[in-house]
Amino acid sequence: MTFLIQQTLLYAVPLMIVALAGVFAERSGIINLALEGIMIFGAFVGVLFVQLMQQSGAFDGAKADGNWLALQGLMLLAMLVTAAAGTLFSLLLSFASVNLRADQTIGGTALNLLAPALVLFLIRIIANQNTLYIDGDAASWFMIRKSDLGFSRSDNLGFLGETFLHRVYLATYVCILLFVVLSVILYKTRFGLRLRSCGENPQAADSLGINVYRMRYAGTSISGALAGIGGFVYALTTANCSSNGDVAGFGFLALAVMIFGNWKPLNIAGAALLFGLFRALSNVYTGFSFLASLNIPSSVYNMLPYVISLIVLAFTSQKSRAPKAEGIPYDKGAR
């Protein structure tokens, strides 16, 4: 059960943070279908940054000294770099949607096609292969272990301690904290109110002096930063510290989580945990005698999140309430 909960969090947290990325863009009035592409780009930049830091000796020095805090600091720095990379990549969508008033669906699809091609091209130049890896057992460097908390391996921390404090990634809790803080900003601050007004009625927002173009740039930029972080966390925790121009459709699954959650953070968190649970079953089903006795191939469990997303969307999409002005280019002269 401990392993199942840990695996569920590993899969749910990237979905949760990337779904919130979609909320920020769509609440401002921009449809961000490019979440998959931004995740791919963020995963590549994060893996490349960690690899460059390894080559500079920064990681090896901190590891040799046993400086766990230094390792976590370098991991947080990598998350900031991927956030900047995601923001930069999302500016392509912002420019096309706001300045050029292009079709946002086509723009997002174009970025989804561009990202894997660009990443694979860069990986071939850098590593002369199709996958970029972080050297060594880098994933374990960023884990929280009992020894890091002052306990010995033989100490029993109880169910909660063993589940949430041992062999978990600090990045998981950083993303959860980001999710909470940004959800509060979106619904409890003046900035969040202005952002949401631009996605509901941009003409009314403009009449009150709110710069709709600027708010839509801000919403899409925050969306890109979160999706970039989500891509790096996916690469770090789920893809064995590698980047190959693919994130297993997590960007599209995050869109499904966002729609299922009705563009509301609390609902999104629950939906992400649900999809994460089904995805985690493929790793732990053999530990449950009932599931193991069914002799169902692991590939079926791998398909479950995507099948569930189709079923859920089929039954809930008609009750979803998207922002009224999403996908509609704003023309100030037509006010």
Mean pLDDT: 87
The end-to-end distance, rounded to whole angstroms, is: 57 Å
Residue share in helix: over 70%
Number of helices: 15
Strand order of the largest sheet: 1-4
User: Would you tell me the structural class of the helices and strands?
Assistant: mainly alpha
What does this structure look like?
This protein has 335 residues and is mainly α. The protein has 15 helices and 4 strands. Helix 4 packs across helix 5 (104-127).
Question: What's a concise summary of this model?
Answer:
It contains 15 helices and four strands.
SSE topology sketch:
Layout: H1 2-28, H2 35-56, H3 58-64, H4 68-99, H5 104-127, E1 132-133, H6 138-141, E2 143-144, H7 158-164, E3 168-169, H8 170-188, H9 190-200, H10 202-207, H11 212-237, E4 242-243, H12 250-260, H13 265-284, H14 289-293, H15 298-316
Antiparallel strand pairs: 1-4, 2-3
Helix pairs in contact: 1-7, 1-8, 1-9, 1-11, 1-12, 1-13, 2-4, 2-5, 2-11, 2-12, 3-4, 4-5, 4-11, 8-9, 9-11, 12-13, 12-15, 13-15
